[in-house]
Structures are given as structure tokens and as C-alpha cells.
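Need C-alpha cells for this chain, all 302 residues.
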Amino acid sequence: MTRGFFTIATGDIGYYKMAFHLLESFRLFHPNEPFAILCDEENAYTKAFSKTVLLENPSRTFTDKFFMLTHCPYDENIFIEPDCLVYHDLNHFWDLLSADYDVSSFGWNDTFVEFFSDPVYAAKKFLGGTDKLLPLFTPGYLFIRKGDVARKVYGDAIRILSEIRDDPKLNNDPRIVCGKAIRDDPIFFFAMALNGCFCAAKPNEGKCVSLPGVEKIEKISLSRGILNVVWHEPMENCSILHFSSRRAKEEGLYLQQITVLRLLRNGKRSGFLLSLAESKPFGLLLDLFKKITVRIKRISGR
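Here are the C-alpha cells for all 302 residues:
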């Protein structure tokens, strides 16, 4: 049985860069673990991965993410979004995620569907009733065991996406349609529930954290493997920081972490430059720089 991690990048070269940075952070704690990429082309960034899986006829949109259910590179897989960075050993995920379901993540299971303006309508349409459980999780990573169940989740996800697009009540719902894109996470939730796949309990340590705001990060250091966040409650020894593509492009914290990765790649494991790069004042300076440049681009229409 093969086992490994993977991510996905299609379309814009920026997604390949993010995937490469994810791999670099992963390698700090897993120098020899297999890490693959699903993509629509081979390039300088894909060469660094353990394995490359080329997708046929990708849409180069969020819908390509559903392919990971049918094109996963290993028998057991942990998918990580490309707009994430790793701060901790992730091997404790395997035992926690692979025990009960063929498709799973850390989270909770509930009947409440907050992603639709009319959750009762959505639950009846896709699940047949409002009393059915849904897996609810932060879509930064996902466990997938290759096989029939994963393929069935894929089939239901594609069907649900089509039904949302064909339903005027849903395809105009601002809670699920962001701009021109439909949110993929509730589609995963419904498709997984239909196939008896639910969430494992969240671990006490090693959590994946969606970036709650720079001010809520108490301590962060790629070189020392530290990610402590105060968000609703103190969370120490977090494993993954999920920036989101927009924040990765627009906020200085991501640029700061990439600067640190570059120094570590060049052998700067200690010293003044690394201390400066990981310092809070440097992070605040980069954040100001990013906000100004993003503002200028918006004003100029570029």
C-alpha cells in the first residue's frame, strides 16, 4: 500500500508558485515523505515534487479540485491546499484520519447548513431531509483512500455542482456564489454525507488553522516549527496555516514566510538575516508594502 501527501495547481502560474512554497515548508519537517502534485502542465515548479499527475481536460477553475477524488496519486492520500504552509510534522494525521472513512477531514458533524441562505431547502434537495448529518470542516486538507467510495463522492459532487448551477434559487445565493465562483466546500460536505463519509474529531494539537488575522497569531517561526494562534481559544503547536489565495497574494505575512523559506533553502538556518526575516517589525513592514501595492494596482485597474 502506498501513502503520501499531494496538492493541486492548474491555470495561473501563481498557483504553481504557492504549491512549490507549500512543498518547501513541508520538506522542513518531512525530508523524505512522498509529496505529489496534480496539475495541467509540467514546469520548473513541478520538478521538485515526488510525483506529477497530469489532468486531462482541466477547467482551470475550482472544479479541478474534484479530480483529486479520482486522480489521487497514492492508495492513501492527504491533500493539502496549495495556499497553505506547514509548521509541524504531519504524520500524526494518518492514524487520526484513516481509521473510519475513505474520505474525511478534521472537523465536526452537524445538521446545520450555514452555507445557504435557505438551509432547509438545500438539505431537502441534496440530502432528502434536514435531520441528516453533514461533515463540516475547514477545507485546507482532506484524507482520501483511493477506491469506489472516493469515486462515488466525486460523482455526487459533480452532480450537486450541476444542480446548483441549474437552480435559480441556489445559483444566485450570495452565501455560496462568490463573484462568479461557487464555493466548493459545501459541495464536498453534501457529497461526502451521501456516501457515509464524515469528520474525525479535531486533534488537541497539530490543527490546521485558517488565517484568522495577523493580529491573532501569537508566535510563528518556520525555522523552529512554531505556530501558536489565539483565536476563540489559545491553539499551540498548530501544523498548517491556511492563508487562502487572496491573502497569500495580498498580505505581508505570506511574503514574510516565503522570505524565510528562501533563506532556509540557501542554508541560512541561523544568524542575523534569519532573525530579521522572522521578526515582527519586518513582517509589519512587508504587510504595509503589500497593502500599498495592492491598493495602487486596484486604483490603476491592473
